[in-house]
Write a structure and sequence with these properties.
Length: about 140
């Protein structure tokens, strides 16, 4: 197994290269949970944790109709599109894997963990947007 960093091809189009640098920097910041956009409670697609306050991860279930991630019979996260829920990095479905790791530990989520999970959801949502923008600015592949 070889471990290496992703490679960015050098291209002759300086303007495109600068655009890709900007998008790449934005992706790095998102994945480090830095410079996340701020969502206000009244906004559509707001990510919220609701329920009875017993935030123990017992069952992980995604409700695509209502865009909710249930962690037990009474607690759920709202505002998560199916595409964000299904987003994978490598072979891992990020949002599901995060909860499965906590389910194995049979523990209740702290306020800090709930906040971190909400940030991860925002980071994945924004990552999808940037990936689309990158696809739109690349004229063809392979790059020249």
């Amino acid at each position: 197994m070889q471990i290496d960093f992703p490679r960015l091809p050098l291209i002759s189009n300086n303007q495109l290269f600068q655009q890709l640098i900007t998008k790449g920097e934005a992706l790095v910041n998102l994945h480090l949970l830095k410079n996340l956009p701020v969502f206000h409670p009244e906004e559509k697609n707001n990510i919220d944790c609701q329920g009875d306050g017993k935030n123990i991860v017992k069952e992980i279930r995604y409700d695509s109709t209502n865009e909710k991630i249930w962690i037990n019979k009474n607690c759920y996260f709202t505002g998560v599109s199916q595409k964000v829920w299904e987003f994978k990095i490598g072979s891992y479905q990020v949002l599901d894997k995060w909860f499965k790791d906590r389910k194995k530990a049979n523990r209740e989520l702290s306020d800090e963990e709930i906040n971190r999970y909400q940030k991860i959801i925002v980071a994945l949502r924004e990552t999808r947007k940037i990936m689309t923008e990158i696809d739109e600015i690349i004229p063809s592949f392979p790059l020249e």
